[in-house]
Request: fold
Amino acid sequence: MNPWYDNEQNARKASKTERSQESDKTHETMMEFNSQITSQESETEGARFSYGPDEMNVGGRLVVGTPNGYNTIQEAIDAAEDGDFVYVHGSYDAQTAGEAFPIQLDLTQKRVALTGGHPAGSEIDATGTSKNIIEIIGDGENDRRSHALVSDLKLIGGNIGLRIRGVSYSTYRGLIFFKNQSHGVVAEGYTTPEGESRWSRGSNFINCMAWSCRGVGFKLAQSARPANTTFFGCHALFNGLYDGNNLPGVELRGNSSSFHGGTIQNNGAAGIKATYGRGQGIYNIYFEGNGMSSEYPKGVYLPGGSGCFTVRDCYFQGVYARTAPNGRSKGYHGVFVDSAHKVSINNSTYRNYEDAFIYALNVADLELYRSSHLGLDQTPFIKTGSNALRLRNNGDIGPTDLRQISGLYQGDKGVHDGSGNYPAGIAIWNGNNWVSQIDGEII
Reply:
């Protein structure tokens, strides 16, 4: 006999008995749990967890489409409660369902999100109607709780794809705007029936695309006061181009609004037009063939009102890979700065522009960071029109006749070009005069 073996066998028998007893207890617990579930399903039938003809509410997720779903999106929104998601199934067809446009989501009444399963699979097709597709109304910048969420949908046809009024601090993700008869997206202000203003600011657009819209792809209206509206990885292609339109792919407005990444390509006017804002910027964007309907096409247009603007780490391709309505084979300017002061253009690559990569007039303190840019062909780097004041390179005023201008601040540095028999070289502004660092004399 082996004492160790006997002890091990006895321990295994005891463990098997314990497991059998635990299994019996688990079986009893599951039977009780299943009984509770059956009771709960019976209690919720016809309430917040229901299936039936033209109605599918799965515990706060209202499904539109499928044999048992809601017939229209508006019906699902009307039936929803605070915190619910209205889910547009790929089987939904707006024409068959008889959807009445515009679909209205009023966040002043309840907080409901609208989503599809995939932007190429969940479509809202408003072809043939002159109405907007989706309209959202909110309580503006004073409501920091009612963040709109619209995602993963393809909005086809109609007038405006998505009209946002008085909706701040919201998220729009994975949306495709295709062949809208007006703009793809418009963010506007809103005046309540009581006469109070509501603005649309602080919103985020993530991986959205505006494609072949007759108007602007993404338009931030001045009435929205759209401060700090941000685009991440969004795309504007072939907008403002058809039927004689001449409109940009993006109209960027609002203090500290910005566009990060994405593609801006083959739009009717400028790829991006930015105005009415300070501290705006565009970063890491691919530009190609914009201004297809313009006489003097440009990639980025910065008119007055867009001061302290930054263009950084972008790629500018001026050539048209398709026949353009303007009859040109390539663009005229990559960046056109007109009356926008204190613009910074840094670390960009450019090619195929007929006149110059940058054109500037009526500007002051344009920061060029000349050595950071890469030209891939013979496109001139910059040309200037009238009143281009204090063009800078890494903070210093580039070579010019310093006698014609004043410094911006005491200690400002500039490079005198040798005019007037004063030595060429660095000079310092002492608050009243330029002092040459070559001979110490006033220029």
Q: What stands out?
A: Residues 1-17, 22-47 have pLDDT under 50 and may be disordered. DSSP finds three helices and 43 strands in the chain. Helices lie at 3-44, 73-79, 94-97.
